[in-house]
Amino acid sequence: MEYVVGIDLGTSSLKGIVTNKAGKVIACASEHYSFFQKQTGWSEQNPDDWFIALQKVLRKFIAEVANFSENLKGISFSGQMHSLVLLDEKKQVLRPAILWNDVRTSRECEQIKDKLGEQLLEITKNQVLEGFTLPKLLWVKKNEPEIWSRVRHILLPKDYLRYRLTGKMHIDFSDAAGTLLLDLERQVWSEEVAKSFDIPFTYFPPLVESLKCVGTLLPESLGDVKISPKVKVMAGAADNACAALSAGIFSSEKGLVSIGTSGVFLTCGEGQEPVTGELHWFNHAVPASCYLMGVTLAAGYSLQWMKQTFAQEKSFPEALSGIEKVLPGANGLLFTPYIVGERVPYPDGQIRGSFLGIDTKHTFSHFMRAVIEGVTFSLKDVQVLLEKMLRKTFTEIISVGGGAKNKEWAQIQADVFDAEIFALAVEEGPSMGAAMIAAVGVGWFDSLEICAKSFVSYHKVATPITENVRTYQKIYSIYQQVYGQTKVISHELRAFDDENVEEE
């Protein structure tokens, strides 16, 4: 039996799956690692931790899957977008990777806006935000000149892993689209952007399609992990592009809601949408295709923060066990999930979250339900923008991640989105999308769409309840007012906190 492997390099862990030609998952494994915050708003990781995690996952596959090494035909990758990896002339890592959820770059974002203005949107089809790669480059250039003087190569996380396996550097179009350095229309690195900020063009690796085989395994690349050097390594794609593949999103007929550390609502573009910058517009893993999406920075992270801060001794099922007894609207308690800033529709790295309407009747279960509802409202913001842009209404949404695994949360999604919610029969997330790329790359299928017929299936898990839909429409209209009402106060509090940190 032949196999392919899909690897997803996430924010908190690296996950891998082994599949056969029928799309059956033969084995899966994951390894966790930490990200560290030296200051408020910072988020970094050690790239070597990713590679160590990859080695451990592959060792597990060798131990668990019969004849794995001999029958493995291809590997591909999915990875967290935007995060910055810098290498020197010897291709050694110069500093910890600055992650996508790092929001230290507000000043650099203003610098980019002042320098390029609307030209950046025309070139990249995206507006500048703290999480993107270009602001991180400018931050390093300004704040760490000794590091910047030694930079010779710029990579994204999954591309660094792939380099470690093959000795070759590339970036696929789906990940490059999230750097603010890609000319999306011409599908080339933008000379205008690079020259505007004096970033040498030689630092950028060649651009490739997600399906391209970029090399084979170097015999020495995995150390004591023995796998045939004949294994093909495909370029892979950004995590959201791979998540879309794993859910069978190839058109705008269905939407995808993904709740991990961040939250995403996406669908495919149709090629005629106006470029406004309100939503992210990125290359899909499917050749000559794009997808539109919006992100809330702290989706599952909001829930994780709530549990760890106020109910550390409880498991997640225990912490969520009472929310089904709380009525929609959490008895007047409202949460905004801006605890690390926000992306869409409020590109604001300084905004922070809030609970509104707290009174003595509220229990821990009310707070947990309010957090879930607030995260779902933040994704409703994206749904509204997509429906307006595409001039259509989503009646079917595929939900993956935490929102699909909890019955009550799935129902909340159905009621807030006013759409039927579907869950995948086998949910492996972006790692499945990576496996699909590998399957097409080794020649098992002629296209990703054909591959999806074998690899993807889903079933309905929730239908909107009319009474709840009406209730949530009223609460959502209140939720929409909170950002504008709290922005100034939140910014003043952030400035006060930053001043105290500097004094310490």
Characterise the protein shown here.
- The protein has 504 residues and is an alpha/beta fold.
- Helices cover 39% and strands 20% of the residues.
- It has 18 helices and 24 strands.
- Strands 1, 2, 3, 5, 13, 14 and 15 form a seven-stranded mixed β-sheet that branches.
- A hairpin with a 4-residue loop joins strand 10 (182-183) and strand 11 (188-189).
- Helix 15 crosses helix 18 and helix 16 (430-441) packs across helix 17.
- It is globular and about 65 Å long.
- It starts with a strand and ends with a helix.
Biggest sheet descriptor: 7 strands, mixed
> Could you tell me how far the N terminus lies from the C terminus, measured between alpha carbons in angstroms?
61 Å
| Helix-strand makeup class | alpha/beta
The average pLDDT is: 93
Strand content: 15-25%
The oligomeric state is single chain
**What's the count of strands?**
24
Helix count equals 18
Molecular shape: globular
What's the helical proportion of residues? 25-40%
